Amino acid sequence: MNLPLGLALFLAGLLATEGLLSPNVSRLSYGELSQTQGLKAKRIAHELAKRNMEFGFKLLKKLASRGSRQNIFFSPLSISTAFSMLSLGAQDSTLEEIKQGFSFREMPARDLHRGFYYLIRKLNQEKQGTKLAVGNVLFLDQKLKLQRNFLRETKNMYEAETVPTNFQDLEYTQKQINNYVSQKTQGLINNLISSIDPGTVLILANFIYFQARWQHRFDPKETKEENFFVDKSKTVKVPMMFHGGMYDVGYDDQLSCTLLEIPYRGNITATFVLPEEGKMKQLEEGLQANIFGRWKRLMSKR
Q: Which SMART domains has this protein been placed in (predicted)?
């Protein structure tokens, strides 16, 4: 069974200064990394992953604290990648706010961008029936002139495309952006943007496309309609898959939740966490950057 997943995030900004966004780091060159450079980039990427995890859990807690009963779905990597790319052209207080918000402050600029360069190259893969694509694109008003160095560095380090756009025709621009994202996500996201604020001259979009096969395929004949509990008082009928076998399962006594890992083909695993009834807030508050390492030690084949 193919389970494609698409995710996109857009950030819109009002930029009206000629020659805005000049790189705040000296020109960097990233081609094929040497063995030594690769090892260093890998260490930096591991540190970035940890900081990104911390940011993701902080954001989750912030969103959950609003008390909304809606589902929360976002990609921490998409957000941090977008802001790291923008930090190439940020200065003064704006740059400091980005560094503080994403815990980038202690990382040299060269290491920061080298780490994201490594992550993006590693994540973009298509092998063993698995396709994972991460991309960035700048929709840029035709009249806005950005520094060539900034555009070159975003292309070299973040594989970001630049698409000239006419923001004087907002309806056309909205259609152009939505069509682009729909194509990159294999039609999974067709209406990323529902409106564009007048005066916008730049939109940065980030997308993730994931398609893979389970290591142990679910038999479609075993799929049955069962009740899904939207909340305590509402249920809906949905098709649920069933499969018997040995999986990594565990229980976290501290956070009162059950853990399950289901592997895809290759080296990708989906982790499912089910809190006990009424323990969702306890789980959210207990999420830390090292939580997956602790959960891994709690699981065993069952």
A: SERPIN
